[in-house]
Write a structure and sequence with these properties.
CATH class of the largest domain in chain A: Alpha Beta
CATH architecture of the largest domain in chain B: 2-Layer Sandwich
Number of strands of chain A: 28
Helix content of chain A: 25-40%
CATH architecture of the largest domain in chain A: 2-Layer Sandwich
Shape of chain A: globular
Number of strands of chain B: 14
Bound molecules: flavin-adenine dinucleotide
Largest sheet of chain B: 5 strands, antiparallel
Distance between the termini of chain B: 45 Å
Largest interface: A-B, 21 and 19 residues
CATH topology of the largest domain in chain A: Aldehyde Oxidoreductase, domain 4
Number of domains of chain B: 2
Structural class of chain A: alpha+beta
Oligomer: heterodimer
Strand content of chain B: 25-35%
Strand order of the largest sheet of chain A: 3-5-1-12-9-10-11
CATH topology of the largest domain in chain B: Uridine Diphospho-n-acetylenolpyruvylglucosamine Reductase, domain 3
Radius of gyration of chain B: 18 Å
Shape of chain B: globular
Chain lengths: 791, 263
């Protein structure tokens, strides 16, 4: 037989994205594209006040309006529970966090602008919107708690009147005494106060949900813009609406970006589910952009004081970080985990700092809930760490590259136990740093700086060495730390009789390209063309119970489940092939889609084995079941730890303060890489969001709790022309504990880039003696600083 | 959006008849500003009179020393017009920097100046180039046209027909865009003509204004250096989360210098 043409669709190949064909042609099927027969439309009535009591709601005019089917308020949901929180954090005194009720619709009080108060369902969206304007809510406006420091002060007004204070939890990690002792006696201590700015996620597709109750079968179907449909089915079915899971199907079809904001269970999902049964037809709700600004969970929003103690040689002795983390008005699904277990545990960074202590207070305020957003806790950790290290370099006069090198965990020190509860399995921080320095012509910087100066520009260079933790796990440890769910993933590999393969995965793709990457794993393992593989996800009616996509877990956890399921397929295939070739399964090898026996010319193709499995005329029926379909559930043994070095160069216009990023390089260690092109795209997207956070984005509330940056007129999203040509490089240390040796790459860009950019700006402003500028570092702030000094 | 009557006018006369026949009618040009306002229910006219069919309102012509731009000419058409590019490149450049391609292909000069957004670009061109706004009733000098935030000299039933731009000796526009919206935080048109120097500033205050002290200094010496040490008073300048009045005052100086240097 002639050697088959290589497929070039395996692990390591930059295959173009399979899903892009439908997306680029406008053939995606998003929730709002779904139009069910007899569908009605829901519009939410939201609070215009940040904090108010509701004295009464008069729905009569709205209910009587043209085309209106129903107007629902909290009274219609009294039989149901509130929205649950999926992670319980304990305070340092051992007490569980304060968990005030998060009602589906406001019960007697509203707690942020955008808090849903009522819902109007009508025959068209326009009619619903008009009627919504007729819902008469009688409010007594109260002074809101907007600022976190004010919210934790004695005597602060309470966001939830049934709680003792606005502090949700007072959590700690690490050795306080050791950190205190080291800081008290160190040769040098660098101190920094910083804000990690609040971000609005702004997925391209706004959230949408359709409830569809089938009175014949008693089954509810919820179509929703979700990153994890099973989690929504579990949370909403079991905790909110008490619907048995076999009567609730959740479908998350094509989803246009999530960045974390579509992990969470939102009120609208429960509302349309209930409403469809009440009004007797499908009910669709789709947010408009303005609504998204005040109802999607926001990200970040930390206020931190950090101290780094160093000895005479610049060795880090201790780190202490105290943080106020905004929870917003209610606990969103994973909110408490973000500033604690996804943040405090990362404070060792890539360094050998022996003593670390962190205290994090979660704070309720009259603002939109804050939860995971691309990176979730890890960008905040990386930012405070890489900012304080850079400041320490300035203060001690040690070169920032050298200072980091002196403190890196060495490549031979793995597995490495940090003082903040993690064990890094592998890494090589020197290697990514060396790569980044080489690719950005470190030695040419002074010449470039002089050239910039000749054009009246200030040039600066910034470095950040990040580490992050992906594929949160193992389930038993996560459970011990407060997770109210498991964190495994499931995959079914269904080989069809003619040899094509359908993969059912619990991971969910909302831009990441799973339909390509996961198919490459199949193509690589089974030696079949990509065209013969379909990746099915996002439907609890089809795929096994899975945990979805967030925390860069898809390839590391979902991919591992897939790899294990494929191994089972190959194992069974060898048994079938052995029977066909009248040999022992132990002698059968599988390579490039052929089962063969070494040293003979006997071989049988994967397709023949598949057909035999389903038409078992010549099949070892006594010892083997027919069919070829396998499922694996994979529970990771540890997190994975991508890390890397990012370098940014900026030029600042002295007259206007405008910052131009003139060079950006990302050097990452993502472990093994399945599709380099997709990985590079993920880094580009992450860097875009990181640059957005560093220089442009920031949610601003005024003292009345109104979101000033409530539209694109004021909320500054990065655009293509704001961004540099990002270059990337990779150094691979394969993950030691998952079958593919992969680590995950979805969030790294957003984690490593903010400190690199801010460090570059501070470096450029060296002559002004600036220690720190809070993000977003706008031209206006930079100009003000330059001119305050001049004056 | 509330339901409304739609009237398509084939001429200026038809447009005026349709508008006067409505209780609360509004002209519809590109709709880039009007339609979003209606979607947000901030405006609820009962009738829209679409000017798109009035061909006399569309197009650019050169009339001796003047460029005449019809009210319904889109930003994209102004930006790419060869007469504009040859005679007043600063005007073409200004139009090419408004919004994004969608906005430029729909938005019109008539709609922009009738709307009189304090952060819009065209007001700087109209005042800086000492244009005349021609309506169905009269001709209005640039300096008399823009009154305040979203307020012009136009009467209820007055229609902008065209804008006449005298061709300057030289002119340049420099804009400091709002990082979020890309409207002008500050935009400065500097023009030199036989009548003298004009420096028109948009974005910085309630309405476009002329920087008198800059004009005087440049009249004596048309160079960026002549502006050294001069500044506009920040007292009446806008302040928002994007720029303080002091920062805006600085930007007025910097953008003016850059415009002068580009002339
Ligand atoms: C995303 C976006 C970005 C933008 N960025 C910029 C920017 O950077 N710079 C900038 O300057 N502008 C910007 N704009 C505004 C844009 O230039 C609009 O096109 C302009 O403000 C309105 O023009 P229009 O033709 O769309 O008018 P419409 O929206 O149709 O009308 C606006 C108003 O003018 C009235 N009107 C229209 N034509 C006439 C007429 N001939 N006589 C009398 N009244 C009339 C209408 O009744 C209405 O009240 C932006 C708009 C958008 C949507």
């Amino acid at each position: 037989m002639a050697a088959a043409e290589p497929l070039n669709t395996g692990i390591g190949d930059s295959v173009t994205r399979v899903e892009d064909s439908r997306f680029l042609r406008g053939l995606g099927n998003y929730v709002d594209d779904i139009v069910l027969p007899n569908q009605a439309y829901a519009v939410m009535v939201r609070s215009p006040h940040a904090r108010a009591t509701i004295n009464g709601i008069d729905t009569s005019a709205a209910a009587a309006a043209n085309g209106v089917l129903a107007v629902l308020t909290a009274a219609d949901f009294s039989a149901y529970g509130g929205l649950p929180c999926g992670w319980q954090v304990h305070s340092k005194d051992g007490e569980p966090m304060t968990e005030p009720k998060h009602p589906i619709l406001a019960e007697g009080a509203v707690r942020h602008v955008g808090d849903p108060v009522a819902i109007v369902i009508a025959q068209s969206k326009t009619l619903a919107r008009k009627a919504a304007a007729l819902v008469d809510v009688n409010y007594t406006d109260l002074p809101p708690m907007v600022d976190m420091q004010a919210a934790v002060a004695d005597g602060a007004e309470l966001v939830h009147s049934d709680t003792p204070s606005n502090v949700c939890f007072d959590w700690e990690l690490g050795d306080e005494a050791a950190a205190e002792a080291a800081i008290a006696s160190a040769a040098h201590v660098t101190r920094l106060e910083l804000v990690n700015n609040r971000l609005v996620p702004n997925a391209m597709e706004p959230r949408s949900a359709i409830g569809d109750y089938n009175s014949a079968t008693g089954e509810h179907t919820l179509y929703t813009t979700s990153q994890n449909p099973h989690v929504i089915r579990l949370l909403m079915g079991a905790f909110v609406l008490s619907l048995p899971e076999h009567k609730l199907r959740v479908v998350a079809p094509d989803v246009g970006g999530g960045f974390g904001s579509k992990i969470f269970h939102y009120a609208e999902e429960a509302i349309v589910t209930v409403a469809s049964k009440l009004v007797g037809c499908p009910v669709k709700w789709t947010a408009d952009r303005s609504e998204a600004f005040i109802s999607d969970a926001h990200g970040r929003d930390h206020l931190t004081t950090v101290e780094l103690a160093l000895d005479d040689n610049g060795k880090f002795l201790a780190l202490r970080a105290n943080t106020l983390a905004n929870m917003g008005a209610y606990l969103s699904t994973f909110a408490p985990a973000v500033p604690t277990y996804l943040h405090g545990t990362l404070l060792a960074g890539t360094y050998t700092t022996p003593a670390i202590y962190t205290n994090v207070k979660g704070v309720f305020t009259n603002t939109v809930a804050v939860d995971a957003y691309r990176g979730a806790g890890r960008p905040e950790a990386s930012y405070l760490l890489e900012r304080v290290v850079d400041l320490a370099a300035i203060e001690t006069g040690i070169d920032p590259v050298e200072l980091r090198r002196r403190n890196f965990i060495q490549p031979d020190a793995f597995p490495y136990d940090t003082p903040v509860a993690l064990t890094y399995d592998t890494g090589n921080y020197q290697a990514t740093l060396d790569l980044a320095l080489e690719r950005t012509d470190a030695s040419g910087f002074e010449a470039r700086k002089a050239e910039s100066a000749s054009r009246g520009k200030l040039r600066g260079r910034g470095l950040a060495c990040y580490i992050e933790a992906c594929g949160i796990a193992p389930s038993n440890i996560a459970g011990a730390l407060g997770a109210r769910a498991g964190l495994y993933e499931a995959a079914t590999v269904r080989v069809n009789p003619t040899g094509s393969v359908t993969v059912l995965t619990g991971s969910h793709s909302h831009g990441q390209g799973h339909e390509t990457t996961f198919a490459q794993v199949v193509s690589d393992t089974l030696g079949i063309p990509l065209d013969n593989v379909d990746i099915v996800h996002g439907d609890t009616g089809k795929v096994p119970f899975g945990m979805g996509t967030y925390g860069s877990r898809s390839i590391a956890v979902g991919g591992a489940a897939l790899a294990n399921a494929l191994d089972k397929i190959v194992l069974k295939g060898r048994q079938i092939a052995a029977h066909l070739m009248e040999a022992s399964a132990d002698d059968v090898v599988f390579k490039d889609g052929q089962f063969s026996i070494d040293g003979t010319d006997k071989s049988v193709g994967f397709g023949d084995v598949a057909l035999t499995a389903y038409v078992p005329h010549n099949f070892p029926l006594e010892t083997l079941e027919p069919g070829l379909e396998e499922t694996a559930f994979y529970d990771p043994k540890n997190f994975t730890f991508p890390a890397g070095a990012y370098i940014c160069e900026v030029e600042i216009d002295k007259e206007t303060g405008v910052i131009d990023i003139v060079d950006f390089h990302a050097s990452d260690d993502f472990g093994n890489i399945i599709n380099p092109m997709i990985v590079e795209g993920q880094v580009h997207g992450g860097v875009a969001q990181g640059v957005g956070q560093a220089l442009m984005e920031g949610a601003v509330y005024d003292s009345n709790g109104q979101l000033v940056t409530g539209s694109y007129m004021d909320y500054c999203m990065p655009r293509a022309d704001d961004l540099p040509n990002v270059t990337v490089s990779n150094h691979v240390t394969a993950c030691t504990h998952n079958p593919l040796g992969v680590k995950g790459c979805g969030e790294a860009g957003a984690i490593g880039s903010p400190p690199a950019v801010v460090n570059a700006v501070i470096n450029a402003l060296g002559d002004f003696g600036v220690k720190h500028i809070d993000m977003p570092v706008t031209a206006h702030k930079v100009w003000s600083i330059m001119n305050a000094k001049n004056a | 959006m509330e339901a409304f009557n739609y009237r398509k006018a084939g001429s200026v006369d038809e447009a005026l008849v349709a508008l006067n026949g409505a209780d609360d009618g509004k002209f519809l040009a590109g709709g880039m500003t009007l339609l979003p306002t209606m979607k947000q229910m901030l405006a609820t006219p009962d009738t829209l009179v679409d000017l798109a069919g009035a061909s006399e309102l569309v197009g650019v012509s050169r009339d001796g020393d003047t460029i005449v731009v019809g009210a319904m000419t889109t930003h994209a058409a102004v930006a790419s017009n060869s007469d504009v590019q040859a005679a007043i490149p600063a005007l073409a450049a200004l139009a090419s920097g408004i919004g994004d391609p969608m906005v430029r292909n729909r938005g019109t000069i008539g709609g922009s100046i009738a709307n009189a957004d304090p952060a819009a670009d065209y007001p700087a061109a109209v005042v800086g180039l000492n244009a005349t706004v021609n309506t169905n009733k009269r001709s209005i000098a640039a300096d008399d046209f823009f009154l305040d935030v979203f307020e012009t000299a136009l009467e209820e039933d007055e229609l902008v027909v065209s804008v006449s731009f005298p061709i300057p000796l030289k002119a340049a526009y420099r804009k400091f865009p709002n990082p979020a919206s890309r409207y002008a935080v500050v935009g400065v048109m500097v023009a030199q003509s036989a009548e003298g120097i004009r420096v028109a500033v948009t974005g910085a205050a309630a309405s476009v204004f002329r920087a008198d002290s800059f004009e005087q200094a440049l009249s004596a010496d048309f160079s960026a250096a002549a502006l050294e040490g001069l500044s506009v008073d920040s007292d009446n300048l806008n302040e928002d989360i994007h720029a303080s009045a002091a920062y805006r005052a600085n930007l007025v100086g910097v953008m003016t210098k850059r415009a002068v240097a580009a002339c």
